[in-house]
Amino acid sequence: MSRPMEGIRILEVAQFTFVPAAGAVLADWGADVIKVEHAERGDAQRGLVRLLGLDVTSQGSSFFPIMEGPNRGKRSVGLALDNPACRPVFESLVRSSDVFVTNFLPDARRRLEIELEDVRAINRDIIYVRGSGFGQRGPEADKGGYDSTAFWARGGSAAGVTAPTAEQMARMPAGAYGDSMGGMTIAGGIAAALYSRSITGDPSVVDVSLLGVGAWAMQFSVNLALMAQGPLPAPEPPKHGSATNPLIGAYRTSDDRWLEFAMLQPGRYWPEFCSLIGREDLAADERFDTVEKLMTNAGEAAEIVATVVAERPYADWLDILSRGEGQWAAVQNSWEVGQDPSLRANGLIAQIIDSDGVPRELVANPVQFDENPAELTRAPQFAEHTDEVLRALGFSEDELIQLKIDGAVT
Q1: Where does residue 173 rank: exposed (0-12), middle (13-18), buried (19+ CB within 10 A)?
Q2: Is the Cβ–Cβ distance between 22 and 186 less than 8 Å?
Q3: Which of 141, 122, 36, 78 is nearest to 403 (CA)?
Q4: Cα distance between residue 49 and residue 40, in whole Å
Q5: Residue 29 and residue 323 in contact, taking contact as beta carbons nearer than 8 Å
Q6: SS3 250
Q7: Residue 137: CB partners within 8 Å, gap ≥ 6?
Q8: Pairing, β 127-132 against β 205-209
Q9: How far apart are the C-alpha atoms of 11 and 102, rounded to whole Å?
Q10: What is the pTM of this model?
């Protein structure tokens, strides 16, 4: 299997999901990712037991999906970065690393002496990476942010999916939604920085903010608003289909499931669709028998399509629509996504063995090399690899014991 990051060491001083997710991707790609956790509490995300109204722990097991996803494949060391006795350990880790990545806020970075100038004083060739809520410059450089605030709300997605008449704002569809996209973005930035260093010899400083990732995800609408020099009008979409195409949009089945149509060439796909649903008469109907008429009378056609779709259950439509060439998709829940045959055929649902020896499954990152699925390993337990990593750095057993007595490492 091709693992293009083999031989690269990433030193991660970060918690929660946004920046750690980047480390997980890089570990999937073969990097040695050493995760520094607080010497007593570990990554703060380890303390979460409920999220979005759901239990996120596995009863009677060490398996913890919200840690496994953004931390699989890493090694964990417990370091008290605020303890002077820990400094030699930290400096040894920095000297042996290619990339330093953090999401700590500026005040914490200064206090712990892990700012750019501190780290570069130890290793001038290291790539320095910061993940933030709102960027490193401007009035909010010191402000913390989560994906619900910086990505979802400030980045425009929340307004984009909340109807003007809604009584409640639409929430993110999954925990760490923007964090996961942001982590992938950081991983790409790190890969580019490593390539640049290999060509020029100069290390980069890489910055990615959740706000920036949110704006990038919304760039279609933001770019149009910039062109219009003001907020975009809130269009009143038809109940079914689009204003000029009945084969676009969501339709409800008889068992209250949904199908999403995206047949952008209505003239091409309308006759086929009519045949699939057993309504060949619609293709010959004088209201719809040319693409121009179909577009003009799209509202009428869409009402007919909605009525027909509502007559059959979801499973029937999956079978019927699979016989055609038009573009459509089942609207799947999270369990169905995990069972998706195309994801599984492409190795994008991957197995790991948890710390109890039980086979588990996780979503793999979507990038593959040389047509090979990533091979994942579990996330570390808190400080699981402290001794292993420090021994490899040259610390003796007596030094390890003393560091533990001093409260410098766990």
Answers
A1: exposed
A2: yes
A3: 78
A4: 18
A5: no
A6: strand
A7: none
A8: parallel
A9: 9
A10: 0.94
Supply 255's token pair.
Answer: 């068992």
- Contacts of residue 206, Cβ cutoff 8 Å, sequence gap at least 6: 127, 128, 129, 130, 186, 189, 190, 193
Distance between CA atoms of residues 42 and 374, nearest Å: 27
Give the DSSP H/E element, type plus range, for residue 128.
Answer: strand 127-132
Which residue type, as a one-letter code, is found at position 112?
A: L
CA 171 to the chain's CA centroid: 16
* Pair 363, 351: CB distance under 8 Å: no
Burial label for 46, CB within 10 Å (0-12, 13-18, 19+), is middle
Joined together, the tokens standing for residue 104 give 């700590």
Is 210 within 8 Å of 133 (Cβ atoms)?
yes
| Residue 406 tokens, joined | 């001093």
For the chain (length 410 residues), average pLDDT per consecutive 10? 91 97 98 97 90 80 92 98 98 98 98 98 98 97 96 97 92 95 98 98 98 98 97 86 94 98 96 96 96 96 97 98 97 98 97 95 96 94 98 97 97
Q: CA–CA separation, 116 vs 121, rounded Å? A: 8
Q: Which tokens belong to 265?
A: 């060439």
Burial code (b: 16+ CB inside 10 Å, e: under 16) for 277-296 equals beeeebeebeebeeeeebbe
Assign 377 to helix, strand or coil.
coil
Q: Are strands 75-79 and 9-13 parallel, antiparallel or unpaired?
A: unpaired
- Tell me the CA end-to-end span of the chain in Å, nearest whole number: 34
Burial (0-12, 13-18, 19+ Cβ within 10 Å), 86: buried
**Tokens read off for 212:** 């920036």
How many residues make up the chain in this entry?
Answer: 410
For the record, the structure tokens of 215 come out as 């704006």
Tokens 């030094």, residue located: 399
